[in-house]
Backbone:
């Protein structure tokens, strides 16, 4: 027996119409609720006795305000300090970590860094992720870690991937081995993962300073599963500089730390020094003090990408050279005045000073004129882009108005 098709078709059409009508009524309620209509009941009534939803909303609001407040930060730094390892049986507490944090904070804040300090961190990975999310639009990032570290931590292998040879099976590792930072409860966070996380938002420059050991503890608890298995692009590697406080498989001193020596060299060099010379100058300072510890760096140099970079100011090396030249000139003038000079010599010195001042004023005028030209060029370019989208008649009129304006 065959059923008639017309009743079935009508049933389907009517059901669709009813569903469509219900959806339309629901959409009207939603629109009225968004517009703030008071005669419509809320779609999801709030239960005042349930704390979970309120707490969740409050946390979301706080995180949103924090994110919006840091959108304009161009230079951000995260300092992770872990002096307390009382939860780890095989690790001792570190007495010099807090002093390292104070010195690093002083150096970074003096050069317009927005600094965040996290102490006794259990989950380093989460702290780094939150920092990168918060300062996702920053152009320059600096991360400093003072605490325990290990190298050659045990990695997970893939039992299904191996090569047979005369010696037996050679298994392929799921992730490569590498240096790792140790959290306050003994959890390891690989430097490999750290660099990927910091470069995720594609900042212009990233500097990492690791003041921790790099030796292997030989403990069964050492296990790192590296999460980032993708290759880092060459362009990103060029913007990353990692400075290790000690060499491979060596321990780091807790009394004469890398950060203390960096601070010493930083003050000696006039509160800024070339990034590529940090390792050389610190190792020289350690050698002069009789300390048998050396630091190393991992920096990819392409052309002059790091050649003139000054740390932590981020300025060009040539700018510092010009400032030092001007300061030396003023010192020479001061020394000649102190030694005692005749009136003719004083007149000559004043003439030299006036010439230097006039040169500086001329250079300043030239710079201002260049800035004005670039500003006019940018505004003109924006106008032309806007006019290119207009109709032909309107475009001609706008072009005449722009000519009269400029």
Residues:
């Amino acid at each position: 027996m065959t059923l008639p098709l017309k009743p079935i078709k009508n049933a389907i059409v009517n059901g669709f119409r009813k569903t469509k009508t219900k959806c339309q009524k629901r959409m009207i309620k939603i629109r009225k609720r968004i517009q703030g209509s008071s005669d419509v009941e809320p779609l999801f009534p709030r239960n005042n006795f349930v704390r979970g939803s309120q707490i969740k909303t409050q946390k979301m609001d706080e995180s949103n305000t924090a994110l919006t407040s840091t959108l304009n930060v161009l230079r951000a730094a995260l300092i992770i300090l872990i002096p307390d390892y009382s939860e780890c049986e095989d690790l001792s507490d570190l007495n010099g970590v807090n002093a390292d944090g104070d010195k690093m904070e002083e150096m970074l804040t003096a050069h317009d860094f927005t600094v965040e300090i996290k102490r006794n961190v259990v989950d380093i990975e989460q702290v780094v992720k939150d920092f990168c999310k918060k300062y996702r639009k920053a152009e320059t990032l600096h991360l400093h870690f003072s605490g325990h570290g290990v190298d050659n931590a045990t990695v997970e292998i893939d039992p299904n991937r191996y090569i047979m040879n005369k010696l037996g099976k050679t298994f392929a590792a799921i992730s490569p081995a590498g240096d790792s930072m140790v959290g306050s409860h003994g959890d390891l966070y690989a430097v490999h993962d750290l660099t990927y996380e910091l470069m995720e938002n594609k900042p212009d420059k990233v500097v990492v300073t690791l003041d921790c050991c790099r030796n292997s503890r030989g403990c069964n608890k050492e296990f790192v599963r590296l999460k980032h298995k993708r290759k880092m692009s060459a362009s990103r590697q060029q913007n990353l500089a990692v400075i290790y406080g000690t060499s491979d498989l060596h321990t780091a001193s807790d009394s004469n730390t890398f950060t203390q020596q960096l601070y010493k060299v930083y003050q000696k060099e006039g509160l800024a020094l070339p990034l590529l010379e940090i390792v050389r100058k610190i190792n020289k300072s350690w050698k002069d003090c009789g300390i048998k510890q050396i630091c190393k760096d991992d920096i990819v140099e392409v052309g002059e990408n790091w050649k003139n970079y000054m740390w932590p100011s981020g300025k060009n090396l040539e700018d510092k050279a010009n400032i030092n030249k001007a300061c030396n000139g003023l010192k020479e003038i001061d020394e000649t005045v102190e030694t005692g000079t005749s009136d003719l010599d004083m007149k000559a010195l004043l003439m030299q000073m006036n010439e230097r001042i006039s040169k500086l004023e001329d250079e300043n005028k030239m710079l201002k004129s260049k800035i004005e030209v670039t500003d006019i060029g940018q505004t003109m370019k924006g106008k032309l882009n806007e006019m290119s989208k207009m109709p032909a008649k309107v475009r001609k009129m706008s072009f005449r108005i722009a000519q009269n304006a400029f």
User: Anything to note?
Assistant: The two ends are 86 Å apart (CA to CA).
